[in-house]
Design a protein that fits this description.
Distance between the termini: 20 Å
Strand content: under 5%
Number of strands: 0
Low-confidence stretches: none
Order of helices and strands: HHH
Structural class: mainly alpha
């Protein structure tokens, strides 16, 4: 596991970094919860199940869109963390 805090001495900066890492963790948990609810491995599996009529379109499609949104948000936070680390 990467030690993100190794080069961070300022306590407020450590808190800011910890908050960003926590956000990513919470988003990953939310994605896992959706995948588990529909017994799929990823958003494509969920979309396929919707198309085949194996799960009700509503609210499954909202789950599908949520996964896409959360993945985009995770990518945003990773870039934010990278920029944060580069500025140290």
């Amino acid at each position: 596991m990467t030690d993100f805090f190794k080069n961070v001495e300022d306590v407020s900066k450590k808190k800011e970094l910890a908050d960003m890492v926590q956000e990513i963790t919470l988003m990953k948990v939310a994605i896992d919860d959706i995948k588990e609810a529909y017994d799929v491995k990823d958003e494509n599996g969920l979309l396929n199940r919707i198309k085949k009529g194996l799960v009700p379109e509503h609210p499954a499609y909202e789950g599908y869109l949520s996964i896409l949104h959360l993945k985009d948000y995770i990518a945003h936070y990773r870039l934010k963390i990278q920029k944060f680390m580069d500025e140290l």
